[in-house]
Amino acid sequence: IIIGKVIVVTDCGDIEIELFARETPKACKNFVQLCLEDFYNGLHFHRIVSEQFVQTGDPTNNGDVGESIYELDESGKGKAFEAEYHSRLKFSQRGLVACASQNNMSDSRFFITLNRLDALNFKHTIFGQIVGNTIYNVLKIAELEVDDNDRPVYPPKIIRTEVIVNPFPDIVPRKKTVSDSNIKKRKKKENKNVLSFSDEIEENSEEI
């Protein structure tokens, strides 16, 4: 039984994601609603760590900022939400989709694994998996040239997202606001400490 499916259309090809909506409902609902709101359209895969993961979901395209549908402020922007863990969901294979969590909190930023990454177990919410041959489009992204900070020289882009099976029929997408566009205009700054879980994988100690 498929209880959630989203296709992320990128300029490297489609990426088909089946959602673990029963196991991690909060993360899945956040992802689905943001997809329905076209939040991810135009965003870059801003980080590629060889043999580990590719990452996207930041509206500034530099890893500093995330969005959520929970606890909205007056401008309609949501706050990060608590991470969800499930005993059956572990980083045991490539193609897993997980929140790029910080301090046990999650938002719109997510990554797709390229290998087994045991050091990340119960530190990041796994909310889906790549299915079918679309994993090869993820591998295309992973092969792109990056700089010394793991940022792609020519960043691949999400063109649009398509919710094929919506496990949350009660979702009501938010209307576009001025703040939605302003967030993309924030001054970008280099922050090497943001979501640096490649170090976590190597050291298997420091929590994000």
TrEMBL record:
Q: Which Pfam families match?
A: Pro_isomerase
Q: Which residues form the PPIase cyclophilin-type domain?
A: 13-163
EC assignment: 5.2.1.8
Q: Per the record, what are the reactions this protein catalyses?
A: [protein]-peptidylproline (omega=180) = [protein]-peptidylproline (omega=0)
From start to end residue, where is composition biased (Acidic residues)?
199-208
Annotated GO CC locations: catalytic step 2 spliceosome
Q: Which SUPFAM superfamilies match?
A: Cyclophilin-like
**What are the recorded GO MF terms, alphabetically?**
peptidyl-prolyl cis-trans isomerase activity
Concerning InterPro entries, the annotation shows: Cyclophilin-like_dom_sf (IPR029000), Cyclophilin-type_PPIase_dom (IPR002130), Cyclophilin_A-like (IPR044666)
Query: Can the keyword Isomerase be found in this entry's annotation?
Result: yes
Keywords carried by this UniProt record: Isomerase, Nucleus, Rotamase
Instruction: From the Swiss-Prot or TrEMBL record, state where the protein is found.
Output: Nucleus
Top EC category: isomerase
The protein's matches in PANTHER family, at most eight in alphabetical order, are given as: PEPTIDYL-PROLYL CIS-TRANS ISOMERASE-RELATED, SPLICEOSOME-ASSOCIATED PROTEIN CWC27 HOMOLOG
What functional role does this protein have? Answer: PPIases accelerate the folding of proteins. It catalyzes the cis-trans isomerization of proline imidic peptide bonds in oligopeptides.
Which family, according to the similarity comment? Answer: Belongs to the cyclophilin-type PPIase family.
> What is the protein name given in its UniProt record?
Peptidyl-prolyl cis-trans isomerase
Q: Give the organism, scientific name.
A: Naegleria gruberi
Q: What is the lineage of its organism?
A: Eukaryota, Discoba, Heterolobosea, Tetramitia, Eutetramitia
